[in-house]
Amino acid sequence: MDKVRNILKFAQSKNQTWLIQTLNPVIRGWANYYRHIVAKTTFGKIDDILWSLLWTWLKRRHPEKGRRWIDHQYFQRRGLRNLGFTLPKGRLELVEGFKTPIRRHVKIKGQAHPSNPKWTDYLNERKTRSKLQREWDRIYGPCTAW
């Protein structure tokens, strides 16, 4: 969160596009690094802290404007769905950590050895599954079904 705080301090005169483009890689990298452990609650807490930091940044940028104006200007909605900190018409939005799927790391069996023919099928299945998963993620985005 210190890195995010520093970015927001530096971004006092920057626009919303720059801020989203700068924060997205930080949030996405952090979420992807910790997605293999039980971190959904932590992701939610981080998103809450990030929202309050963003709100402080917005209040500093628009001291004369009210809560509703800031909310309408920076936090877009589509129907009943809240898109979050988004540019108008949803062209670019801030990544939310809690939307990152938690995907458990499946340990390889301890007896499995690549040079032992007995384990060839098992190792090939693992390799195929991980290739399919990477291809699925590339085309459709992360999937938690694997």
Automatic annotation (TrEMBL):
Pfam families: GIIM (PF08388). Residues 2-75 form the Group II intron maturase-specific domain. One of its GO terms (molecular function) is RNA-directed DNA polymerase activity. This is RNA-directed DNA polymerase. Keywords: Nucleotidyltransferase, RNA-directed DNA polymerase, Transferase. It comes from the Bacteria. InterPro entries: Mat_intron_G2 (IPR013597). It comes from Leptospirillum ferrooxidans (strain C2-3).
